[in-house]
Structure formats: C-alpha cells, structure tokens
C-alpha cells in the first residue's frame, strides 16, 4: 500500500487515509452524478438518503469497510467502483466510476469524520 499525499480539502484526514490525487469536491460531484445516494445516506450530498446500504456518516473514522476489509485508501478506491471484486456476495454493486473518479470519491468519504 503506497503512502499517499494530501490533496487539498482532505487535509483533515489522518495521513494513512489521504488519497493520492483525490479531489474531495470532485468526489462529492461524482457521488451525486452516479447516485450513490439511492442506497446510502451521505452527509453533504443533496438527496442522498437511501437506506439500502449503511449510512456513510463518519466513514472516515471507521476501521472496516463492509465489516471485513481494512479501511485504507487503496481498498476504498477499489471498493467504490468494484465492490463485488473484493466481497463477491456483497449487496454493493459495481459503479461506473473511472480510476480518477474513484480516488475523488474515496477522498470525499474520508472527509466524513
Ligand atoms: C444498489 C445500492 C447501492 C449503491 C447504488 C451504492 N451502494 Fe454502497 N453499499 C451498498 C450496500 C448494500 C452496502 C453494504 C455492503 C456489505 O456490507 O457487503 C454498501 C457498502 C458501502 C460502503 C461500506 C460502508 C460500511 O459501513 O462499511 C461504502 C463506503 C459504500 N457502499 C460507498 C458507496 C459509494 C461511494 C457509492 C456510489 C459510487 C455506492 N456505495 C453505491 C449498496 C449500494
């Protein structure tokens, strides 16, 4: 797992959670665009109040993703775009995010403290 560098507004996150080249504001926009909020409550994203998946409040303080994976940038970047490749029977679907967008989305989630 490479140690990653801070990008602007995720500077409040602990060092191990800062996402290389992740742009949290762009991530917030991507979350709205692909409608993660259909399934999740996500603070700061208008209309994101779904209850299919867990609420993502304070996600930056969680130790685990989906209760089984370490909450680290490389894992989260992959999770947000292709969760079934990590946990085959998960209810979290593949999402149409490219690599850059996945990093941005992860950066935004780490601002949720
Ligand atoms: C069709 C519904 C659905 C959509 C759309 C969806 N998710 Fe999920 N998500 C889930 C479910 C269900 C889980 C719980 C998975 C598990 O525990 O295996 C989950 C879990 C997660 C987790 C782990 C939460 C935790 O508490 O461990 C994160 C982070 C997450 N989703 C982010 C996103 C993001 C970001 C998007 C948009 C790119 C998104 N999800 C889109 C259903 C969805």
TrEMBL record:
Keyword set, alphabetical order: Heme, Iron, Metal-binding
Entry-linked SUPFAM superfamilies: Cytochrome c (SSF46626)
Keyword Iron carried by entry: yes
Residue ranges annotated for the Cytochrome c domain, each copy included: 22-113
InterPro entries in the cross-refs: Cyt_c-like_dom (IPR009056), Cyt_c-like_dom_sf (IPR036909)
A Pfam family matched in the record: Cytochrom_C
Domain of life: Bacteria
Protein name: C-type cytochrome
């Amino acid at each position: 797992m490479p140690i990653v560098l801070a990008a602007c507004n995720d500077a409040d996150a602990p060092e191990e959670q800062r996402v290389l080249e992740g742009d949290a504001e762009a991530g917030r926009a991507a979350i709205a665009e692909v409608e993660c909020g259909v399934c999740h409550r996500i603070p700061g994203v208008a209309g994101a109040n779904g209850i299919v998946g867990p609420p993502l409040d304070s996600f930056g303080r969680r130790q685990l993703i989906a209760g089984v994976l370490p909450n680290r940038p490389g894992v989260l970047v992959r999770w947000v775009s292709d969760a079934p490749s990590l946990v085959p029977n998960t209810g979290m679907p593949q999402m149409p995010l490219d690599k850059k967008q996945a990093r941005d989305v992860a950066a935004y989630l780490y601002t949720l403290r």
